[in-house]
Structure formats: structure tokens, C-alpha cells
Amino acid sequence: MLVLASCAGEPERDYAVPERLCGLDLGQENYAALFGPGKKLEKDSLAEWGDMHVMAQGCRYLVDGLPQAGVVGGWAKQNDEAAPSTPNEQIKAHNTPERPRRYKGPYEVATWSGGAVAAVDCRRPSGDPDKDFTRFLIDVSADESPLSEDPDRAHEVFGKLAELVMADVVGKLSCQEGNRSAG
């Protein structure tokens, strides 16, 4: 178990940061900042990454029984009027008063101080009953993380992490050739 010493009176993290984030090998240095102080870490898993017919994939972490961080992916319809289909729309669903910031990288990513959302277009096989769901969104967020008080650092950490997650997950999706774009 990893125990971090407290600096300048900050509360301690008595649990180990996961070796893999929601089953993805992304390097702890890229997501350790999402995890705040506490004693016990629990993982609430959703469906495995890459399932073309499951709307919620990934996991959420609880610290001392309270939501801490999550990486959740799901399918959306392009330009859907009823549900988010862009990073900015998904961020609005978090009810944050902050204006999303575009993160520059190969995927369509927007951030706020509590997370980031990445999107990729992914054409589905012909005959697929869910063929209208051609966007995959990754929502990386953390409740009350140490990053929430430093928006510029949060933008960099969450933006980079959303890019890393999407790069790993997009390889698990069965997108049809010719239509896997960064949006």
C-alpha cells in the first residue's frame, strides 16, 4: 500500500492509487492528481471498454464511500437534440458554471476544472441496429480533486488524460475503416 506523507498540513491519502485507471494502462503519473485524501478506495466498474452496444463503459472510484474520480465512455448520436454529443454539451451536463476550454491534441477535447470530455467519430458496421450512434465520448472527471483549485493545471492534467484514454479506447472500438476521426 502506498501512503503519501502530508505536506504543509494537507490531508493524507492512506490508500494506493490504482495501477491501472479503469482497466487502462496509462501511467499513474498521468492520473494520480485526481485522487484526494482518504482512507479507503473502492472501484465501481461498468461495462468493459470496446463494447459497441453498451452505452456506459469504464468505471468510477469512491474514496471513503464518496465519489472521487471516474472515466466513463458512451455512445452518442451526432447532433442529437436530446443527449450530449459534443464535449462542450457533456460538460454542460455536469452543471458547472465554468466555460469549457478546448484542449489541443489529436481528439476533440474540452476541459473544465473538474474534468475533460473527449469525442471521436466512429462509423459502425452496416446493418448494426445502433448505426445512428456514431460518436464515442469519454468523460474523465473528479469530484473535489486536488486539481479543482488550479484551473490551469486541471486543464493540462485532464486534457492530457482524456487524450490518453481516448487513444487507448479507440483501438478497442470496432470502427469501420474510413471513419475514425478526431472530430
Structure description:
By secondary structure, the chain is α+β, with helices and mostly antiparallel strands. 14% of the residues lie in helices and 27% in strands. It has 2 helices and 8 strands; from the N terminus they run βββαββββαβ. It has helices at residues 87-92, 151-170; strands at residues 41-45, 57-63, 66-76, 101-103, 108-112, 115-122, 135-142, 180-181. Strands 1, 2, 3, 4, 5, 6, 7 and 8 form an 8-stranded antiparallel beta sheet that branches. A hairpin with a 2-residue loop joins β5 (108-112) and β6. The protein is globular, with a radius of gyration of 17 Å.
- The strand count comes to 8
Range of strand content: 25-35%
Mean pLDDT: 88
Gap from first CA to last CA: 40 Å
Shape type? globular
Give the C-alpha Rg: 17 Å
The proportion of residues forming helix, as a percent range, comes to: 10-25%
Largest sheet: 8 strands, antiparallel
Please report the number of helical segments: 2
Give me the strand/helix succession. Answer: EEEHEEEEHE
* Class of secondary structure makeup: alpha+beta
Task: Indicate the low-confidence ranges by residue numbers.
Answer: 1-7
